[in-house]
Design a protein that fits this description.
By secondary structure, the chain is of the alpha/beta class. The protein has two domains: 211 residues, Phosphoenolpyruvate-binding domains (TIM Barrel), CATH 3.20.20.60; 50 residues, no CATH class. 44% of the residues lie in helices and 15% in strands. It contains twelve helices and ten strands. The strands form two sheets. The protein has an eight-stranded parallel β-barrel with strand order 1-2-3-4-5-6-7-8, surrounded by five helices. A two-stranded antiparallel sheet has the order 9-10. Helix 11 runs antiparallel to helix 12. The two termini are 22 Å apart. The relative contact order is 0.12. One of its GO terms (molecular function) is lyase activity.
């Protein structure tokens, strides 16, 4: 089984050519070159040219482009540039209408951002659109739209976060958690990564190089966890060879779903050895 980990996905502003070049040397599992919120209107054209040039470079992992949203003056030029440049995926902000997404026919994986109340309510239909590879939570815009107040543990957003995970997992798509804004707070970022993994996210979008290692570690598999997965699989394979449909491992009953989970962990561990934290 081939696993492409997306533990950390780094946003890089399209109008910052030096940051784009540096991103190639970092250990993020994927990079999003951003033409939307990170770029002021007067810099949109220059940012698009920077991204066009960067798409011709060799990148160590998947390279996505966050285009400007539907209905903006830049949307068509952004998408055309990304598609002609051979991008690995297009990130579409403020996705709300599954019919519109289905009609884009992009021919590359689409990553809708769920960052409005309507986007959350329609997350299951959006996840079901052919060509959608996964969904990314945009918590900053969602927080503003919901008129929530700051609270520990992202309490006002928990329903929305779980709704995105539920929709993505139901359709076999990849859910990515939102960014953490305070780049000076590694402890808070680590706690939010732990929460995201507990909720079921596959990885986290990040905005600073210092956040990459924490996300890779939190959403990855340790050597100890990989060894435990190997042991469980060995016990399971022995039980199956003996014609048993369940087995006992460390005092607990295990069945096929536990073996599948252990295999997924082992596959992820193997994949991340080529892209360490």
């Amino acid at each position: 089984m081939s696993v492409k980990p997306l533990r950390s996905v780094l946003y890089v502003p399209g109008d910052k050519p030096r940051a784009i070049e540096k991103a190639r040397t970092l250990h993020a599992d994927a990079v999003i070159l951003d033409l939307e919120d990170a770029v002021a209107p007067e810099h949109k054209e220059a940012a698009r040219e920077n991204v066009r040039a960067a798409l011709a470079w060799r990148w160590p992992g998947p390279l996505f482009v966050r285009v400007n949203g539907l209905g903006t003056p830049w949307e068509h030029d952004d998408r055309e540039m990304a598609l002609l440049g051979g991008v690995d995926g297009i990130v579409l902000p403020k996705a709300e209408d599954p019919a519109v997404l289905a009609g884009l026919h992009l021919r590359v994986p689409l990553w809708p951002m769920i960052e409005t109340p309507l986007g959350v309510l329609r997350a299951p239909e959006i996840a079901a659109v052919p060509g959608v590879a996964g969904m990314i939570v945009g918590a900053n815009d969602l927080t503003r739209a919901l008129r929530t107040r700051p609270a520990p543990g992202r309490l006002p957003l928990l329903h929305a976060l779980s709704a995105v995970v539920l929709a993505a997992r139901a359709h076999g798509k990849i859910p990515l958690d939102a960014v953490y804004n305070d780049v000076r707070d590694p402890e808070g970022f680590s706690h939010e990564c732990e929460q995201g993994r507990t909720l079921g996210f596959a990885g986290k979008t990040v905005i600073h190089p210092d956040q990459i290692g924490i996300a890779n570690t939190t959403f990855g598999v340790t050597d100890q966890e990989a060894e435990e997965a190997r042991t469980l699989l060995s016990v399971w394979e022995q039980a199956r060879a003996e014609g048993q449909s369940i087995a006992t491992h460390r005092g607990a009953l295990i069945e096929q779903m536990h073996a599948d989970e252990a295999q997924e962990m082992l596959d992820l561990w193997k994949a991340t050895k080529t892209n360490p934290s």
